[in-house]
Design brief:
The protein is an alpha+beta fold and 111 residues long. The protein contains 3 helices and 4 strands.
Length: 111
């Protein structure tokens, strides 16, 4: 994913966590807030509590980024989004993960 689509700065994270809204499902939660840009920015927070091994965390991070990049990047305008997956997502395959991401974005009314 290109750098302009990444949420990186601490002040941006603080804005999302303080002023943003939260939507959750049993497997995943997202926090989102409006930004003043013409595109969305995305971040994933995957703790060691969720996945003990770094390769598991990285695999889940890569899959989530790819799903957003392929299907939803053009539709998500002016949003800063933080994705917080839970341990149940580690057992899901790519197709199930795509469906869960679609459900959470629809529940948040972002798409």
């Amino acid at each position: 994913m290109k750098k302009i689509y990444r949420l990186k700065l601490q002040r941006d994270f603080d804005n999302v966590f303080k002023k943003g809204k939260t939507v959750s499902l049993p497997q995943i939660a997202i926090k989102y807030a409006k930004n003043n840009l013409n595109h969305c920015r995305l971040a994933e927070i995957i703790s060691k509590k969720t996945a003990k091994k770094a390769n598991q965390r990285n695999l889940l991070r890569r899959r989530l980024k790819e799903i957003i990049r392929i299907q939803y990047l053009k539709k998500l305008d002016n949003w800063d989004i933080v994705i917080i997956p839970k341990a149940e997502l580690l057992e899901k395959d790519f197709v199930e993960l795509k469906e869960i991401v679609r459900l959470i974005l629809e529940k948040a009314k972002l798409i």
